[in-house]
Amino acid sequence: MRELYSVALSDWAERVNAAAVAAQPFFFLLDFELLEPRLYTESEWREQQLVSFAFPGGEGGVRAQRDAVSLTAHPIPTRRYREAFDLVQSGLQRGDSFLTNLTFATPIDLQGSLEAVYGNVSAKYRVWLPERFVAFSPETFITIDAAGFIRTSPMKGTALDTPAARSELVNDPKEVAEHATIVDLLRNDLSQVARGVRVSAYRYLRALETHEGGLVQTSSDIGANLPEEWREQLGYTLLRLLPAGSVSGAPKPATLDLIRRAEGEQRGYYCGIAGYYDGRALDTCVLIRFIEQRDQAYYFRSGGGITARSNWASEYAELNAKIRLPA
Ligand SMILES: C=C(O[C@@H]1C=C(C(=O)O)C=C[C@H]1O)C(=O)O
Q1: Where along the sequence do coiled-coil regions lie (predicted)?
Q2: Distance 265 CA to ligand 1 centre (A)
């Protein structure tokens, strides 16, 4: 398996394995295309501040600021969205894919800096890579506890947090089917690296607060047992699970090809993962709810899952509805 990876990725995986075995804390970033793997030691984030992150059980990075931050989106032209959507639809109709996550970068005006966004918003996971991006993600990719129990909580299905939209989300056959597809895909992914795969909670609703009103998402929890010596293989285990099913689709190889053709640009760290190992256990998130800085411009990256039953206008609306700052 190892020879399939680039030198940079194998090197990254070996360094992850070594640090995990040595009980040395580390933080990492992996981009969607797996071209720019990064691994940071404690002094690189604490003293040199090459990256900042705030994870549920972990590090804080810079403290919350009080500067006002806000954003104004300039939605991408519907024509551009439809072209990509139609390309994805033809792949879905041919049966190359049965679920494809289609995303775009929407230009935004940002009042405040990436740092100010990082310091002001609340989210389960926050990551700030200076000059590059800030992410405020609600989505866990996987966690591994000290005993080697691996868990994942895919989020699939998003709606505004109103009673009507909630019940539509819960009852919509398309949403039900998409969610089942993702849970299946992740069960399969986990079974590649672990044993005793089980779903402990299925399709529960979770509210997400934002500056401009709430969103709800449907999530599930899936878990399994890694081999006892899991730390020795941690880097390669992570690579085998990527890209994350919830932000790619199924089946993965053909779907990734469809995504590349439809989106026409790399996702970079958006839809990649970030992880924090505290010396014993690992927590990772999917890098969504993502503001990117390119040259002197800012873009909000967002998207959602498309199936053969999807309709372009509601998918376009979902992509735009996600362009918000959490409270
Ligand atoms: C890629 C994104 O969304 C993904 C797709 C979701 C969906 O289809 O409901 C929800 C969360 C993400 O896993 C994003 O929000 O940017």
Answers
A1: none
A2: 18
